[in-house]
Amino acid sequence: QQQKKKETSTQVPKPEKRESSPYTTVALLALVVVGAFLYIQTQNAAESKGNKPAAKAERQKKSGPTSGYVPDINEIPIANVSDDNPGPVRPIPGDLLQVWNPVRKGFVRQLVLDSTGKIYNMTTLAVDPPLFEIENYLGDQECEFIKKSAMSTGLFTSDFTMLDGSNMDTKDKTTKGLTEKEANELFRHSEQTWLPNVGDSLVRKLQDRVMNLGVLPNHVRGVSEHMQVVKYTSFGHYESHYDSEPTHTGPCCHDPVAVGFSTGVAALNQPLEKRCRLCRFMTVLYQLENTEEGGETIFPMADTTDAELQKWEASHDPLKWKQTRACAPGLTVKPKKGKALMWYNHHVDRGYLGDVNKRSVHGGCNVKKGVKWISNHWMGALPHPDVPRSPATAHY
Taking CA 139 as the corner, what is the angle to CA 138 and CA 141, rounded to the nearest 5 degrees? Predict the structure, then answer.
């Protein structure tokens, strides 16, 4: 018995087998879910601070263009004009001229241009010159305000004198009630006026919007023109032309060295050393009316090959500038109320005004039915300080 008691006292008890509690499994799953949620929140917070722009841009590419407003513009990344980020992005002007990368025809970039948070969809129409279309850039009230202001200021006949002055004797001819044949004899057939960019007027606010749209340095504002407003009625048109002028026509008119100089037809009676040139880096054209028929804006040399451009430049065909009659050949844009077109008239030289982009030639096609209203903001600039301000060697 003593031996048996001893054996019994030295036996090690076997561990008791326990079943796992269902509450333990639930707790573990809850920890996993909470951990995943916190990770996602951390990543989103990092993106909003600009730490994950690539991932955010990738999601935006997949989602495609949108419209409307963003709740907080401070969460929108700052734009890089050189990349292909479709946005939304905020353009922040710097100290030098920049050009938006057109990427490809049909590319859409979303821009937030002011504190309202409105998203503007900017679509590439041509790569060379970089030409963009922004629908709904102006609201209906803005369009009507511009037209009413122009009529209150007073419209006058647009100058239709040829650059060589060959029809100077007809410059005071009335253009009211012209037949189609008579109208087609004119280089330009329209009425126009100017609205100043002053105070806190709507025109000034539109210029502010353009400064962001073009990512333009602040000094551009001081050398830019007032808003031009143009009305085209039956057979109204503007033959193909450039908004800016080449280097050989003198220093820029807004350059301090050109004080007292003249440009265009007004310079024909002046010596060449008193001739200056228009230096309009960028054009923003606003369409203020839905024209019933005709009135397209045409770019006859947009995205042409070098050979095609050289052939056109060398041509002496009398119809060389008259694509506006048939509205062909070329890239055409129909008038649509509220739409804006933006293009660059010049290349950029080290962040300053470069040579004229010869493919920026454009015109206004004949209005066949209805009325066409447009307005323009021409944004000026100056060449690099190292570029000599040489006198003109020719008038055009």
Answer: 120
User: What tokens does 29 get?
Assistant: 């799953």
Q: What Å distances lie between residue 27 and 22, 30, 38, 201, 215, CA to CA?
A: 9, 5, 17, 63, 54
Residues 6+ apart with CB under 8 A from 322: 239, 240
Question: Which positions ≥6 away from 395 have C-beta within 8 Å?
Answer: 163, 164, 249, 267, 268, 272, 275
Q: How far is CA 291 from CA 83, 186, 231, 240, in A?
A: 36, 21, 11, 20
* Residues belonging to the chain: 396
Distances (CA, A) of 89 to 6, 51, 83: 86, 15, 11
As a whole number of angstroms, the distance between CA 203 and CA 213 comes to 15
Q: Report the C-alpha gap between 233 and 370 in whole angstroms.
A: 7
- Tokens representing 194? 């100017």
DSSP code for 151: H
Residue 240 tokens read as 């193909």
Nearest alpha carbon to residue 111 among 73, 56, 63, 71: 73
Cα(279)–Cα(381) distance, integer angstroms = 6
N-to-C CA span, the chain: 131
Measured CA to CA, the distance from residue 152 to residue 70 in angstroms comes to: 36
pLDDT digits over 271-293, tens only? 999 999 999 999 999 999 999 99
Other Cβ atoms within 10 Å of 102 Cβ, number: 23
Q: What token pair was written down for 109?
A: 């970039």
Instruction: Dump pLDDT digits (tens) for 166-220.
Output: 777 776 777 888 999 999 999 999 999 999 988 768 999 999 999 999 999 999 9
